[in-house]
Write a structure and sequence with these properties.
Blueprint (H helix, E strand, L loop, with lengths): L4 H40 L4 H21 L5 E2 L2 E2 H23 L6
Antiparallel strand pairs: 1-2
Helix pairs in contact: 1-2, 1-3, 2-3
Length: about 110
């Protein structure tokens, strides 16, 4: 039985909504990972809203790129959990280190 245009449109719409859900999930996980990295940084250094903002943005970016570059591990709401967590933590940590070391010119512990 050939697919009718209505069926094809419905399938495309469902896949598009699922893709949007996976993007939102990756961004939320990345924001949480950025907040965790900022919390760890806050234990050592003084409070900085610039570092907080960069941690949140780059944590979300790292989580999004991690889930779409590496397909490994368990899935939850359309994202691969392990690459999402690793991408959010690693990119957020690298940006925090670079900001503390090169922008603020402080010794990083």
């Amino acid at each position: 039985m050939p697919a009718t245009p209505l069926k094809c449109q419905l399938v495309t719409q469902i896949k598009g909504e699922f893709h949007m859900l996976s993007i939102i999930t990756a961004v939320i996980v990345g924001l949480v990972m950025g907040a965790i990295v900022y919390g760890a940084d806050r234990l050592i250094h003084t409070k900085s809203f610039v570092v907080l903002g960069c941690d949140l943005v780059f944590g979300a970016l790292g989580a999004y790129s991690g889930t779409y570059l590496v397909n490994y591990g368990p899935h939850l709401l359309g994202v691969d959990i392990l690459p999402t967590l690793a991408g959010g933590i690693v990119l957020s940590f690298v940006v925090t280190y670079a900001l503390r070391r090169f922008v603020f010119k402080k010794a990083v512990a």
